[in-house]
Amino acid sequence: MRTGSSFIGEIFGRNSDVFYLFEPGQSLLTELHSQGALFLRPIYMDMLSALFHCNTSSLNFYMKCLSRHHPFEVRKKVPRLFDLVCYKWPAARPGIACRKIDAELFERKCREKRHIAVKSIRIWDIGMFQPLIQDGNVKLKVVHLVRDPRGMTASRVLAMNFVDSTINKLEAGSFTDEMQLYLMEYCSYSIDNKEIGYYHPEYRNNYFLLRYEDMALDPERVTQLIYNFTGFDAVPENVSKWIAENTKAEKPGIYSTTRVSSMAYQSWRTKIDFKTAKAIEKIGRCAEMMEHFGYLPVRDESHLKDLSSSLLAPIPPPHDSQRYHLE
Predict the structure, then answer these.
(1) Is 242 exposed, middle or buried (0-12, 13-18, 19+ CB in 10 A)?
(2) Could you tell me if 311 and 217 are in contact, meaning their C-beta atoms sit under 8 angstroms apart?
(3) If residue 319 lies in a helix (H) or strand (E), which one and from where to where?
(4) Model pLDDT for residues 4-52, shown as the tens digit of each residue
(5) Is the domain covering 1-17+122-327 a CATH 3.40.50 domain?
(6) What does residue 146 show for φ and ψ, rounded to 5 degrees?
(7) What ranges do the domains of the chain cover?
């Protein structure tokens, strides 16, 4: 999605008290496609419910999928198990190998940890979390991450055309049907999810709205706020160190989790022109979405390129003036 969700995931994944899972929906998608079935959200919610209860009885496909991954992917997707199932070959055979991940080990390590965190971009409707929020054994907290649709689009296109760092192919009116549909859905669902998080009684005190840009501008402070919201006492020293090391300097890599920084968050403004930015603003409900989340429209080309002129405004408070987002 190109919204910085991998970075947010890392602040949990690097905490040894957290059983962290990266995009389990990818495994479900692969399994369903192999059967010729569609990726249905209720099926994914059943999977998430099982994971939050550390119950893998219906998730044999997930264990098999994790076991097939390269060691690098195991470290990323289920870090608490990496040291238990992966090992270095003898010096004569350099490299790392991993043994099969079995359900007993997965469930045992899952239950040992104080918290379970799942990073997922495959949830368009957070209203589907209501049963888990009501479940006293889960005590679910939802961190809803959004990004300026103009920046997200530029980042997404750059990722798809990574050889062309200037995104010459992204011109006003040249969006593919797939990109337009994606933007329409992203902007619409972002608004709907914010409304659920703000106004649904079940989500009160269980919903945290986070803009990618706020995390980029002050990652240490925002990480502490997220930790407070999710029930942690303090940010572990190793997590704070990782944040400091990975947000102070520019580092290469389109898919790197280290690209959230006070400079990188608005680099999209140097990569697209005014017409393209305005075209994105006019797609579907994106102008409305920008207003909801405090993203300011661009006035002209010089305004777009002037990085000293912020395109961020405070997020408008709920109508009842009770805020459940980043203060």
Answers:
(1) middle
(2) no
(3) none
(4) 888 999 999 999 999 999 999 888 888 877 776 666 778 889 999 999 9
(5) yes
(6) -130, 165
(7) 1-17+122-327, 18-113
